[in-house]
């Protein structure tokens, strides 16, 4: 590697990611030049000068600064138009690594990616979030180290880590806020705990938000308005509007699980209200319905296996759950007008039975204009949406123009 310099760490770096307390990046600085190279296409100094309008000497100086960080590397020579062929340069995603963790209620997926969010190594862990933050996060940190060793790299190569949690999160601090499925986690400093062990920026968000980011980046990058719905032990949504993730005032945007189902049964929800979508249509709710009929479905995985076996009662229960989800989503479609609704989570592995129930209601109850081009599809990331989104969260932060400028300053000061 050209450099082992770490990315900026600490409150100022994290504040910058959230748009607070950071100066505007200079248009002639290295960070701004780097944004033109992030697509990975090789460019010459002349190409960059032509696009930016900057003097070639300025562009040459900025390219040299980027080369020193290791984020950019020479890629060869462009075709000559006479004289010596000009050198080309491109983004080098392997320059740094990102750690990603998608922590669920009973299962966690961890991964190591490069700066293009390409998964280099990953592992799924059976972890109960109810065991508490110290036990769970220590297990994640241990697995992170094992994955780094598998890739032949070390913590010196890290740009940062992203973590998704199955509950509300104050994104600016990384603290869970009264998470109903996470006893002992309320207010815990996840970013601080992991940051002390790794020495890198730690970004934390709600698991459905990062799944929305992952699915959007990997499958629907050209779609500006997308709704990702996770159906598992709980039900939630990640909202992408105008290409940006919407978290809401307190980070509670997208909590579909506690919207009352129109015309639904008066089942008491764990939140204390009755008729919530989660109480009616989550994996836990469907499993409860089937257990009442004598089926042994103690987990969401057992539920999906029963459905895949061709069981008629399971198919009917899942389709009815889909209809309940559709009744809530129909209102969301009228309000948000997404182009795509992606259904993910372990219960979504039930496949077409669930999707059929959702589509049946959404397409009949939402406004025709809002559904004219609407697509309702299953997740396309094969269970990786969470880790891909956690990685994307970090990449967006550490490769932002202002952060790259700080990296250049740090690299120059230690050279």
From TrEMBL:
InterPro entries named among the record's database cross-references: ATPase_NBD, ROK, ROK_cs, WH-like_DNA-bd_sf, WH_DNA-bd_sf
Protein name: ROK family transcriptional regulator
UniProt family annotation: Belongs to the ROK (NagC/XylR) family.
Region (Disordered), start-end ranges: 1-28
Highest taxon of the lineage: Bacteria
Gene3D superfamilies: 3.30.420.40, Winged helix-like DNA-binding domain superfamily/Winged helix DNA-binding domain
One Pfam match: HTH_24
Transmembrane domains' residue ranges: none
